[in-house]
Amino acid sequence: MKIGRRCFLSFLIGGAAGTALTPLPWKLTDDLSIWTQTWPWTPVPPDGEINYVNSTCMLCSGGCGITVRKIDDRAVKIEGMKDHPVNNGGLCIMGLSGLQLLYGPRRVKEPMKRVGERGEGRWEKISWDAAIAELAQKLNTVRGSSPESVACITDESFGTVPHLFKRFMAAYGSPNLMITPTIQDSYEQTLKLMQGVDGIPGFDLENSKFVLSFGCGILEGWGSSSRMFQAHSRWTETGGKLVQVEPRLSVTAAKADKWVSLNPGTEAVLALGIAQVIIKDGLYNKDFVEKHCAGFEDWEGEDGKKYQGFKNFVLEAFTPDTVARLTGVSANMIQDLATNFVGAEKPIALAGRGKGYTPGSLHEFMAVHALNALVGNINQEGGVWTLDRPDYIGWGEPAQDPVAQKGNGTPRIDGAGTERYANTRSMVNTFAEAVNNGAAVEVLLVSGENPCYTLRGGEAVKKAFEKIPYIVSFSPYMDETAAGADLILPNHTYLERYQDVPAPFGLPIPIIGMTRPVVKPQCDSKHVGDTLILTAKKMGGSVRDAFGWENYEACLKETLGDLWGTLESDGFLVNADYTPPAWDMAFGDESKKFQFFNESYAHGNNKDIFSQLRIEGDPGAFPLILVPAESMRIASGPVADTPFVMKTIPDNVLKDKEIFVEVNPATAAAYGLRDGKSAALSTPAGRARVRVNLCEGIRPGMVAMATGLGRSANSRYIANKGVNFNDLIRPVPDPISGLDSAWGIRAKLERA
Amino acid sequence: MSAIEEKKAKTDSGAGFILLFFILGLVSSLLTGWVAFPKLLYSQKSQPFDFNHAIHLDMVDGCESCHFFREDGTYAGVPKLAQCIDCHEEVQGGTEDEAIFVEEYVANYREVPWLIYSEQPDCVFFSHAAHVKSGGMDCVTCHGNIGTSTSLKPYEENRITGYSRDIWGKNIAGIKKNTWDRMKMDDCAACHRENGVKQNSVQTHKGACFVCHK
Q1: Is A549 helix (H, G, I), strand (E, B) or coil?
Q2: What's the gap in Å between the CA of B37 and the closest CA on chain A?
Q3: Shortest CA distance from A23: residue in chain B
Q4: How far does the CA of residue A431 sit from the closest CA of chain B (Å)?
Q5: DSSP assignment, residue A640?
Q6: Most buried of the four, A25, A333, A469, A743, by CB within 10 Å?
Q7: Domain shared by A226 and A375, yes or no
Q8: Do A372 and A398 sit in the same domain of this protein?
Q9: Domain stops at, among A358, A382, A406
Q10: What confidence tens digit (pLDDT) does each residue in A411-464 have?
């Protein structure tokens, strides 16, 4: 007898029957269903106690309050802080995804010293003691010969951290501290020139009923984005109107009640054209203009010269026909805009293009601000207010030894504060050019900024940074500047550190926000304030003497004094009842009046300055005009998008690694460009390969490119995607302020 | 022997073999299913160190002294180091487990990585507050007489799901004698039915599966 097929089958049948009588099939089915519903590789946050920390976001200068939800010691969600005076519970996508900066791969995990070639990415990890000793020794060595050759680029004007940098540079002996200017600087200079006040602007937009925006990216990150979104919703709900003046259909233009498309760069002309109609028709606020303004009518100066006032200046030079020809906006439309603006209950005119990162033309700001004066909304509900600069830091000037005195007495390399640009604090836009022209910079300290990415000028910026022998970055992230630095002393991220954040741009009430540690430092980083204090102590001498504090936290507590308690418990301190000074007290000039024009900047003999905002490039070689397209979905400042936010960029802006440019179909047809096809974009500053996105929303003859892309460092989620707009444009100094006023550049687009 | 008889005998012995193999298959699969399978399915893990519930319960006032509800109503579960540290800053008594606890965890402020016998899969939403505070249930109904135990049993981890054996129950056939022997979905459902619990989720107002699977 042999064991055959039947036996085998019988064994199998027996096995099957037996298996059915065991729990095995049922248990396995059950386990597999649990396994498939809770895949083991799906991340599950550990369970624990839910707790919340109130802090302030520092990803832009908006100063939004945040509430971070934590499970035990791990932060799991950032939300807008409810009832916060800036953002009232709202938050932008970048702020919401900030945890990816905290826990993500782009952190600099410990102090690092370059060992390979610059930018090669070869680093040696060093201890904090060694890093600070190296920096102190380097600074002491340079101080021996030329302290002024140490320069510093930082991001903020107010608060203790920028003041520590100011103090450090003053005690060290270098005037070359450059705080990156924005439209805040342009507005401050506008207030200085027209209102005679050293203050900061506030816009009572929540109460405005008619907003005439000259290219402000109200829904693209201008000011505190959450506040602006909420203000926009409020206008929609309460019948307020938004008129957007802009040559391309931005998100703001698309969501506005009216979009006025005009020739690029003629915003100031349109503002004066509207002013002309208002004056000609006698529609201006006579109470304000006649009693509280100077320079409106022609006047005779103390020097005996006759000066043309604002009234006759615009009546003569900015007739609707002239303005219509220059701007491309019809005379009827100009008339309508003027009538609607003055006829509205609480009108306001705003300047500062896009997100407001480029300071812009001061003439444009002044022309727009003149409209506010004509309707008398200065310091009125729904209008433009002035606020004092925060003044709670009362450290006094540090003692300067002879070396520091000598160094501080040398002229700034960027030309700010000279007779020509007397009101300008710093002009980082001229930094690269100055270095390339031979200005000696032995050491560059960079904090809170990323000039290798954000400075305009492409090759010139790269060349300048190559010339600087020693670059120190305090960035918590491996950004473009850190990647090209010689020493990185990583700061804590904004979710790991204390810092005061006063006076967000445009808020009409004084506020100090407090950023504080949400979690303990995740890497071997150190607060930049502590790094500065320790470096000063290590350096010794008068620099050490200027920093008596034990550490940054002690410095902050001492500086804030009685304010500390409220800031610690609430996360912010606000004077919600602030009212700006009345008209008779509002203007700081001797005349106590608002100055449409005065002797120092009367433009009676300089009319064309308004009619032509300068743009670089030869129209023959570069027939088109390239302008930036800014978006809430692309962070274009020092800190790049988080991976989450990168995922929100539409395919017609960035697809894989390729960037698209907006081109009007008529322009595309003229140059033989087809939708989605590759093209070569060149400007006097650089070249890039792009793809074409045909778009009816942009004026013919223009090209718009997204800003904030084309990062080379950071992480694989961000790097090498698209093109850096800043490489294709060069700064153009404004004739009054010297600040960068380049709103575009001439360009050429060819089939590739 | 005739050819027919010969064939019959052959067939008889063939049938015997077939039956034998049937039985072999049956027995081996029964053994596999009842004996080998549970051993293969679960891996045994020991807790970081042993813990005596009985001693602690004598000193405190009920389970909730250590396994408490937080102020916001959430349930704290297994105690954190911060709760133990008041008494255990120094070594108490002479057991080896106590020494491990104090030296390895308390001294280094390291949380003890306890293995939790009653942890439900992540897809289940379970609120202790709803059961204990609102429903008035006691701990024993689901967790058994753990409070009187003097040592921790080995933790058996399901190799497929990664969860504890206590969810399915010690009995591989799923037979239970006590309410705390098993913590499967059917046990939840049976109790909810018996007690006429509200059939919709408080949070989402949805019924059926969505009471627990949100």
Answers
A1: coil
A2: 7
A3: B173
A4: 50
A5: P
A6: A743
A7: yes
A8: no
A9: A382
A10: 999 999 888 888 899 999 999 999 999 999 999 999 999 999 999 998 899 999
